[in-house]
Amino acid sequence: MSKTYLSLCISLTLFLCVHFLSFSQKLPEANEHFKIGMAGYTYHKFDLDRTLDDLATNQVKYLCIKDFHLPFNSSEQEIAAFHQKLAEKGVTGYAVGPIYMRSKADVDNAFDYAKRVGVKLIVGVPNHELLPYINEKVKAYDFKYAIHMHGPDIALYPDADDIWSHIKDLDPRMGMCLDIGHTARNGKDPVADLEKYNDRIFDMHIKDVTAASKEGKSIEIGRGILDIPALVQMLRKTGYSGVCSLEHERNFDNPFSGIAESIGYFRGVIVATKQ
Amino acid sequence: MSKTYLSLCISLTLFLCVHFLSFSQKLPEANEHFKIGMAGYTYHKFDLDRTLDDLATNQVKYLCIKDFHLPFNSSEQEIAAFHQKLAEKGVTGYAVGPIYMRSKADVDNAFDYAKRVGVKLIVGVPNHELLPYINEKVKAYDFKYAIHMHGPDIALYPDADDIWSHIKDLDPRMGMCLDIGHTARNGKDPVADLEKYNDRIFDMHIKDVTAASKEGKSIEIGRGILDIPALVQMLRKTGYSGVCSLEHERNFDNPFSGIAESIGYFRGVIVATKQ
């Protein structure tokens, strides 16, 4: 444990140094309840160093950790080294996932992993029959569990309404990751979803889509059909205090320009809707 | 001349094809009077092909032509080939410059070049004593002449007020390229400048800066001190119908992420201020 403590101290010192030395600029979201982050999946073709470089380029401070950047079987030392690397760029790993869970063993592993990583939010895709078991786990661990939605592509959890139907009678720590693109592709209104289910929305995937149907493709924020100003206003109205993580699912081999454009657009909307 | 005509026909056909085949998406600025473009200087380390690729990536349709992409001594055929290349990407070269002019010969060359290129707007940096001569040229050619400003860095034309003092008694076709960053670095308010001098603003350089002083550096739009929502509102109020050309002057060896972020931010502000 003392090694972990030492690592955390080093991480904190490095974080403060980076913070102090960087151009003292206030990000557009600095006065908002919500934060801007990145879904690790966006960088699934790139290693952690390249990922962190791009987060720094885009001044993104929150990362949802995917297992290809930090494997499930990572040791305590590897996890400490991971956090230190993030801290050097001023980045916080705020959650893990999405993690598919098809058995109780998968659930146990995921909760154990999240605990060792030191986060209290899991983004998951659990088989329906596992929900009662997960419901007990969130109580035992005092974690939040955000079910991931995937629109019309797969049957498991297409949209926010579907997830709500499965969690409404469960512990309030059972919620969802609102993917505004996928719920729109399933014919729903993500802004209305945000208002309706705000108590149970623990994470968000921000993106844009070319159409409100199965044929809709993920695209740079602002190029598609979603009403981003309305979304930002609803983030404020509901007081959403989690992370809005960009999940950019286009040009996976070279997503950097699209990421920058999307983050720029989102911040432009944040600033302009303050007026 | 028939060769030029043929080239223009081919260009037009290619433009229409590209236009027709591309994702039928309405750009945020589609319903505005102003357009979004790019100052060629942004890509001064890259050739025309790489430049046009990036304009396509960012859906930018207007380019202010710099001579490193189309040399002053280009032949009629080279100019036609240049326009054809632009048309293949749906890009219009709307002006030439900035061009430094230190003698009457420089002025003659610049006007001759612009005429051969087929644009009616020159962005220039002329010595003061040449202004009466240029004033006669704009009448003879029926061109517009936009004097480029450069803040506190060089004595010639630091800001909009200075340019106005030199052109106010000249032909109304004598105007300026409002560089919102440089005029701000000279202690002026670019939004007020836009309102004050809107009759004489024929081109704009959009950028952001870290400080309203000589020490201020060019930075991605939205990261600096400029009030971009107020600028966009003033573009609407004044009915500015020219191009807002991004002049990104940072990370010249790899400006692409910064360009995408800046264009994204600007478009986010355009959309959000419509509400």
UniProtKB/TrEMBL annotation, chains A, B:
The keyword Isomerase applies. Residues 72-267 form the Xylose isomerase-like TIM barrel domain. GO terms for molecular function: isomerase activity. Keywords: Isomerase. InterPro entries: IolE/XylAMocC-like (IPR050312), Xyl_isomerase-like_sf (IPR036237), Xyl_isomerase-like_TIM-brl (IPR013022). This is Sugar phosphate isomerase/epimerase. The lineage of its organism: Bacteria, Pseudomonadati, Bacteroidota, Cytophagia, Cytophagales.
